[in-house]
Amino acid sequence: MKIELKGLPNLNEVKALILPVFEESEISQEDYPRNLKEVLEQKNTDRPFLGKKGSTRLLPLFHQEFPQMVVLIGMGKREDLNPQSIATNFGKAVQKCYTENYISVGLDLTPLEGTLPLKSLVQTLGKSLILSKYSFNKYKQDSSDETPPIETVYLFSRDEEELFSTKSALEEGISIGEGICFARDLVNEPANVMTPSALAQVASVQGEIYGLDVKILDENEMNRLGMEAFLNVSKGSSQPPKLIVMRYQGNPSSDQIYGLVGKGLTYDSGGYSIKPTGGMLTMKMDMGGAASAIGTIAAVAKNRLKVNLTVVIAACENMISGNAYRPGDVIGSMAGKTIEITNTDAEGRLTLADAVHFIIDQEKVNSIIDIATLTGAALVALGKNITPYLSSTNEGSQQLEDASKNSLEKIWRLPAESDYHDLLKSEIADMKNSGPRLAGTIVAGLFIEKFTQSLPWIHLDIAGTSWQDKKGPLSPVGGTGAGVDLLYQYYKIQSRSKKE
Ligand code: BES
Ligand code: MN
Ligand code: ZN
Asked: What is the domain extent for residue 481?
């Protein structure tokens, strides 16, 4: 699919023209050729299109060859417009064009003038176009009817000169979209394919493509480092664990390094605290944090953001065997702290504890973000469209909120309630790995916090948002790539604020 920026619409080039319509405003555009304007007005008289958010209407123009169809999309109220509503509304309209098999589609941005800056508009559209055409069908012999036929999308705006100045914003949007789709692919790969070794291989290939420094540590090296918490989770699997380290140096004159840790459970059966079949069925997605961390560092490197970023992923499987860890075991950790295992299904925090200690101790980062499909409680709290997070600082929280506003992701802060550390007190060890059911997302975060050595820290729990069971305007069923857009925007803010 090509995305091209154009001045005034040349209607002979597009099969379908997408026209955004705001609530309480006219649909016809003065600048259009007279006949189109008349047709639109005439078609709209019987049952006026009201422009309600998310509504669409197809207006076929039979007597003309081009465009064959005008797709009206309701944008809701002008003042409520934001990147997220633009992306979902356009996503819906483009999906309509896919099902109608249009090869070339035009999007008219002129009605959106004066809402968002054109650059962020174009970036959002580039991103959402890439997302809306994503599909994962490599395991189907016949997938022809699932591949959208669209070849070219033209973005039109009356202000040609300003439009052309958004070319780099468009490319940035496309590269973020590609980073998200890359993360989706990794999540959608089944666990028998996307093993810890395969994930490590993927990271190495990304390293070569984007000039990152990638190191893979094997079990022996991790043993030597004392990564007991991580290795205990992996013990029951016949797949060897891998510790993946990826470094991007985008600001060599600074010694500030951002640390990003992604949960990399390529499969989570629950271990001896076994999950029911239904809960296990999608647990190939338990490396969603890792996938998004890799997608993020790729997008950051591709766009040459001026930050130093190090990603660490402790990749393994949580399985059952005669060698697996048990409920009741007491294990150590790289930080030296001892942990009583009260639930083998609370495995993510164990792998993250060592990964966080490693990234501070060995990689010398100054701040940490961890991103993890960590708790079912995240779904209970906020559902499938909002990512809950904890932040040790208000400044970090503010920057993440700003990043969210530039991205297509919604987030909500939960308190890192220090009193709740008591819920992880153990009778026989320094801590236990799971508490009671209450406040499950917070408590899981607090477990990780114990290993952050008081560095600025943000914890993102994407258990709900990393996988969708229903098709949406911008994603099919499966992995969503949640975190890539948000984190990219976060590091972009960092790259700006740290520039002298
Ligand atoms: N990977 C799961 C969390 C999860 C659940 C992700 C549903 C996506 C959808 C995690 O390892 C887990 O099993 N967490 C337990 C923790 C509990 C034992 C304290 C949970 O949420 O039930
Ligand atoms: Mn688990
Ligand atoms: Zn898990």
From this structure: 175-495
